[in-house]
Amino acid sequence: MEQKKSLPIVPIVFVVIAAALVAVVLLGGGSDVTDEAIAYGPVEVTGSIARLPEGGADPALGAPMPEVVGADFAGNAVSIVNDGRPKLLLFLAHW
Predict the structure, then answer these.
(1) Hey, which of 25, 47, 85, 95 has its CA 20 to 30 A from 66?
(2) Where are the domains of the chain?
(3) What is the pLDDT of residue 56?
(4) Predicted local confidence at residue 69, as pLDDT
(5) What pLDDT, on the 0 to 100 scale, is given for residue 4?
(6) To 10 degrees, the CA torsion angle through 54, 56, 81, 83?
(7) Where are the beta strands (DSSP E) in the chain?
């Protein structure tokens, strides 16, 4: 009696998932963002940060942070101000 050969399920599933991811990356990723959506309003910065010297202590340590006031894309007021609570700003970029 001849035994039926079963298909290797795990490699087939892996190949199908990989092909789907490649299709999403190549075919997706279009953007509907218009120039109007990336526009921003006026931003006001009060204060400054001292330049870091080549050696020695950082003169900005203990100094008040600059304050930033502006608006979000919907026109709502947004501010980053010294209110006594610690702040963490994270800037991300994609090239």
Answers:
(1) 95
(2) 64-95
(3) 85
(4) 93
(5) 67
(6) 170
(7) 44-46, 67-71, 77-80
Q: Which stretches in the chain have pLDDT values below 70?
A: 1-5, 7, 28-40
Closest CA to 46 of 21, 79, 8: 79
Token pair, residue 2, equals 């001849």
- Residue reference for tokens 């702040």: 87
- Could you tell me the CA-to-CA distances from 61 to 9, 10, 47, 57, 64 in Å, in that order? 59, 56, 14, 8, 9
pLDDT score at 37: 56
Provide the greatest CA pair distance for the chain: 86
Please tell me the predicted confidence (pLDDT) of residue 53: 87
